[in-house]
Design goal:
The chain is of the alpha/beta class. β4 and β5 form a beta hairpin. The strands form two sheets. Strands 1, 2, 3, 6, 7, 8, 9, 10, 11, 12 and 13 form an eleven-stranded mixed beta sheet that branches. A two-stranded antiparallel sheet has the order 4-5. Among the domains are: 31 residues; 286 residues, Rossmann fold. The N terminus and C terminus are likely disordered. It is built from 16 helices and 13 strands.
Amino acid sequence: MEKGGRNLYVGCAVIVLLLQITIFVSAEEFFDWKNEQIKDRIEGLPGQPSNVDFAQYSGYVTVDKKAGRSLFYWLIEATDDAQSKPLLLWLNGGPGCSSVAYGEAEELGPFHINSDGKTIFLNPHSWNKLANILFLDSPAGVGFSYTNTSSDIKKSGDSQTAEDSFVFLTNWLEKFPQYKNRDFYIAGESYGGHYVPQLAHVIYRRNEVLANPVINLKGYMVGNAVTDDFHDNVGIYEYMWSHGMISDNTYRKLNLLCDFSSLVHPSHLCEKALESANAEMGQIDPYSIYTPPCSNSTATSGKQHGKRKSWRHLFGEYDPCTEKYSEIYFNLPEVQKALHANVTGIPYRWTTCSDVVSENWNDSPRSVLPIYRELIKAKLRIWMFSGDTDAVIPVTSTRYSVNALKLRTVTQWHPWYDDGQVGGWTQEYEGLTFVTIRGAGHEVPLHKPKKAFMLFKSFLEGKPMPAMPASPELLATS
């Protein structure tokens, strides 16, 4: 009886497994994608701590076979119950900067790099405690992503990047079909303010005409985001002046000589005014105006938003030299092997940002606000957030862009709280939520990791930022 019961159980289990497989794919296809996942599985990273309790995968997905264009990804699954958690795609900006270098290795990812450049430690506020996180280096030429057609790198632009990212997702989901139809979100920062809504727009438009769309886009979130050239410029100059960083005279010149409608190609006279502003600000990092710099940081190049002189991150209580550690770690042959990266022998050293990509950017629309208007009507969940000590794409710029949408206010401007202290301010509009993070610079999850974690949690849950509970004294008098 016991033996017969066991045989029956095994037989039923096999039937259930086969049914699960055939819901989406044939048995042969099942083993194909399972083998692909196994090949991309990261068994462990050099210098990794022993208490890693989540799966991770990395490798390449071809987006243009003829050109030999492939994008590098790093999937880090949720720490628990990964099969039910949503999928978040994170995109850093530049254009030309690596999501692995910034998003994963110093912001929201679980692995951050020690000062020796050889070992890594776990980030206690990693976003993979809430979701499965997919980091993508895009476009080709950024990070470990590559193309066999060298001219591709000098023809990069917004439209091609959005298209390649969509093709990447479509092909990646064939490799990871368990994520098909999973709740899907996109987030990013800086020039990701173009990448994120543009990719969301492509997905939304394609889903409208596909019979069986598999990308279940629910919404997106962007921080300190390049959004609208006119409002970005107005906000930058106003922020620098109002924070005592530039003189009245230079502020007047910036307003007089700079074409607010073009952030990408300032005139010669505007360039001279910007040089004056840079000189007056001195050796601070406008990406985080109140925190100390890494020594000799002005000698290094590249940044997530390359429209101004490039000073490096200034992190306050955080180590301001993390990019230097990334340059060491991700160039180690054993790290590249563990990540299944650089398999074709890229003829250049890995860098956090590609100057070649940035300097040859060909397509950058002056505003993505029309995309916002369309996707707000589509009822996607849309949040914008802003670290308020960033002078590159400051809170003033984002507020001007939000106000230009002319949305109805649902909840008026008010503070939100973290451990009884003001964490920032927020306002809810019909179709969009705006949140500031007090004391954070350009990279919010780096400067204020706990507050960024709270932000992401509220975004995923579709709930307002936490309000301060009423004090016992207030309750007693009410």
